[in-house]
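Hey, I'm writing a tutorial for new members on how sequence and structure tokens pair up, and I'd like a real worked example in the thread rather than a made-up one. If someone can provide the structure for the chain below, I'll link this post from the tutorial.
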Amino acid sequence: MSSPTWTPAALSSEARPVSGRFWRLVEAQHQISTLKIVDTLEEQALLETLLEESKPVLPPECKGLDYLLATPFRYGAIYPHGSRFRRAGRTLGVYYASEAVETAISEMAFYRLLFFADSPDTPLPANAAEYTAFAAAIETPRAIDLTTPPLDRDHAIWTDPQRYEPCQALADAAREADCQAILYASVRDPGHRRNIALLTASAFAARDPVERQTWRLRLSASGVQALCEFPKARIGFTRADFGDDPRIANKL
């Protein structure tokens, strides 16, 4: 399949405003991991400060941002593996999130399974793991949408489950066109609802997450089960929901 060629000028003409809440998941232990090795909250605050100072520098547009929003934009550290809209190496950061919390959960479920698939002799964990889902308010006057004409004509390329180079080239051109975000269909969500890739932290409309939920994800031979107590919700995924991806087939 040949790669599409979208010039910065062509992408600039397709840019439009986008705003809304977009969801992302992190392991819940990020909130308490340092508390395990100190005696007081004051000591924890000092340790967190020392750890923050040891990390790569954040770009100026991240000043004042909650670390959950700012972390993907840290420069200086080598990005070990390329992702859909970010090349490997010392590359500019990309913040990935989903329009629906269910989509963010399906993305996390897939990559957790992929993590264990990369270590075939490692059994799936017996217990459910706890995650924090958080929504960020995003507002930008310049975003491109790969799910609408004319960019959707290359839908099969944008949604390739493993080949990311065309999407990375598109992100390069989008940056040249001063676009701040890319909307695209989730490959891992069975409903293929939209994700967003923020190319700059300037697109955040609030400095802190605007909503949080606690989810528990359990990986098992029958699939993935996700539970939330408030608001009460449950989601289940089977191998078929992930398109029988050969990389995780041996885990389900």
